[in-house]
Amino acid sequence: MVTMRSLALTLFIVCAGALFPSCDQNSVRPTPLTSLDVKVVGGFVTANLMPIVEPDPLYCRLTLSVRNTSSDGSFYGLGVREGTVFLDADHATLGRFRFTSDWDGRLAPGETDTVHLTKLASSFSGFTPPCGARVGISFAVEDFARNALPVTADSLPVLCVY
User: Fold this and answer.
1) Phi and psi, residue 14, nearest 5°
2) Which of 1, 37, 53, 133 could form a disulfide with 67 if both were Cys (CB 3.0 to 4.6 A apart)?
């Protein structure tokens, strides 16, 4: 015998399954970050050391090619939060800074985006720019759940203005 209470409970479960498909065992799981192909295709680091410049003289911009190699899983909520700068010569860590980007962080299956990362002003840890040296920047592409794919931009010259 079907009661109003059991009918209401059944409807609630059906509706909850429609609203929250991740609870359904047959729903599509997010694609692992290993199906992301990330390449650093360009970048530069400059420092303006003129006396009238604010305390953060460092400027950095990286250009990435980010490709979803999956044929059936989409990504959303992807982004890069911060990077660590190190000397190419001996891999000594110099400091860290945060990045900003206008990338929406979404990639459909097979889609490729060009992503421009720019260092946030006043976000670096105050290291002295190694003018004329080459540096690397390590960072991670992260998803909404903070799963991370490590990436490194190697051998960028630090160009300084005095």
Assistant:
1) -65, -45
2) 37
Query: Quick check: pTM over 0.85?
Result: no
**How do residues 95-144 score in pLDDT, each as one tens digit?**
999 999 999 999 999 999 999 999 998 887 778 899 999 999 999 999 98
Quick: pLDDT tens for 6-41: 444 444 443 444 444 444 343 344 447 989 999 999
Tokens of 45: 């680091």
- For the four alpha carbons of 43, 85, 157 and 60, in that order, the dihedral sign comes to positive
Number of residues in the chain: 162
For the chain, domain boundaries: 1-29, 31-161
Instruction: Give me the CATH code for the 31-161 domain, please.
Output: 2.60.40
Do 63 and 41 form a contact (C-beta atoms < 8 A)?
yes
* Tokens found for residue 85: 């700068």
- CA 111 to chain CA centroid, Å, is 16
